[in-house]
Amino acid sequence: MRTALTARLGLMLGIAFSICLVTGVLSHFIQHPPGGFHWPSRPVQLYRITQGLHVASGLASVPLLTAKIWSVFPKLFTWPPVRGLAHGLERAAIGLLSAAAVFELVTGVLNIAYWYSLMPFGFIGAHYWTAWILAGALLLHIAAKLPLIRAALTGPAAPDGDTNSTAADGGRARRGMLTLARAAGGGGWTRRGVLTLTGAAAGAVTLATVGQTVAPLGRVSLLAPRLPGVGPQGLPVNKTAAAAGIVRVDESYRLQLTGPTGRHALSLQDLLALPQFAAELPIACVEGWSASATWSGVRVADLLRLVGAEDPDRPVTVESLQQDGPYRTSVLEPGQARDPLTLLALRLGGEPLHLDHGHPCRLIAPNRPGVLQTKWVAAVIA
Ligand SMILES: Nc1nc2c(c(=O)[nH]1)N[C@H]1C(S)=C(S)[C@@H](COP(=O)(O)O)O[C@H]1N2
Ligand SMILES: [Mo]
Fold first, then answer.
1. Which of the listed residues 173, 194, 220 is the one where a domain comes to its end?
2. Same domain, yes or no, for 267 and 214?
3. Hey, whose CA ends up nearest to atom 21 of ligand 1?
4. pTM
5. How far are the Cα atoms of 101, 130, 139, 276, 282 from residue 106, in angstroms, in the given order?
6. Residues 107 and 153 in one domain
7. In a domain, 225, yes or no
8. Which of 47, 75, 213, 285 has the smallest count of CB within 10 Å of its CB?
9. Percent of the chain having pLDDT more than 70?
């Protein structure tokens, strides 16, 4: 039963990893766009969905990977460890695959939990490049095991699960493996039992965390570090004003607006005197949570018109009062900058912005990662 079990777990894990890879690479490209890559400003909720899938599929993979490694555990001790070049390469790919998979899941969970102190390396680069190593090793592994996988998923269930053993395995390896398989807990467990338990564990992990994005499930999401609705003005805060070094914003505040036909320095009163628009838009944080809110303020497109930046190909840079830190500036693609829902928000839920949410004003745009929704905006440059 073991090979069939391993193949089924592998299939589930392959699906979860594929969703995780595609949504993760997409998120990376949106934040670090390679030449020629464009991300539209609609549908409004698209990034929220892709990033929610990234986090959910990654977390559901934790019990799947645990069960998969458990199911092949005895094979780690087969003898001899390497039988020729092809077999040696195949085993090296499995070693790389397991190490990369464990690394991705551990760093992903640490990221969601904000435990950066446990990662003495750049999280973004390490998590991104290891994903490609994982994808490569996974393809090699699937190619090497294809005949076996096909037999295990389609053929009749083998009574003892050693369809993997060929005559070349030799009696000793085979007996050793079977003994270890039983010792490692293989005996007494049916395939259905293990699959049910693993599925239940994956479901429990999902329920315990998905509330950080799906608000009605917040009550059962005991493991979610952030919940929609919890925070100042009913919205979580990712970086507080104090953490960003913003102590106080006073009457002397001016938004510096720069474009082809000139510069303006706008006070908060000036901004409030411009036409105000409302938009229901989510903050979709790459660290796993998302929450929708009602924002109102000035359209960025209207500000651009004030300084002659109507040119639809002109990108826009937004800078924060924050002095340093990777997220003190962000760039709006030309189309996103001119979307009527893209606001310099002055209000949240009808009240002036809380300092932690970016008072006196913050960027909020549709279909955009949270890290690019710059708070405490000091300058808009087109
Ligand atoms: N200036 C500045 N803006 C920022 C950040 C930051 O560190 N500095 N963090 C971003 C991140 S990671 C997120 S998820 C959102 C969260 O907005 P909120 O704290 O108002 O919910 O703000 C973004 N804006
Ligand atoms: Mo974020």
1. 220
2. no
3. 237
4. 0.90
5. 9, 12, 21, 44, 27
6. yes
7. no
8. 75
9. 91
Q: Is 226 inside any structural domain?
A: no
CA of 239 to the centre of ligand 1 (A): 6
Residue range(s) defining the domain that contains residue 67: 2-220
Instruction: CATH number of the domain at 358, please.
Output: 3.90.420.10
Do 16 and 79 sit in the same domain of this protein? yes
Mutate to test the pocket of ligand 1, among 239, 318, 331, 348 (most ligand atoms within 8 A of CB): 239
**Which of 151, 185, 220 is the endpoint of a domain?**
220
Between residues 154 and 129, the one the model is more confident about: 129
67 neighbors 13 (Cβ within 8 angstroms)? no
In tens, the pLDDT along 233-280 reads 999 999 999 999 998 899 999 999 999 999 999 999 999 999 999 999
What residues form DSSP beta bridges with 286?
none
Distance 77 CA to ligand 2 centre (A): 43
Tally of CA atoms within 13 A in the half-sphere of 283 that contains its CB: 30
Is residue 145 in some structural domain?
Answer: yes
Q: How far away, in angstroms, is 361 Cα from ligand 1 center?
A: 12
> DSSP secondary structure string, 150-189?
HHHHHSPPPSSS-TT--GGGHHHHHHHHHHHHIIIIITT-
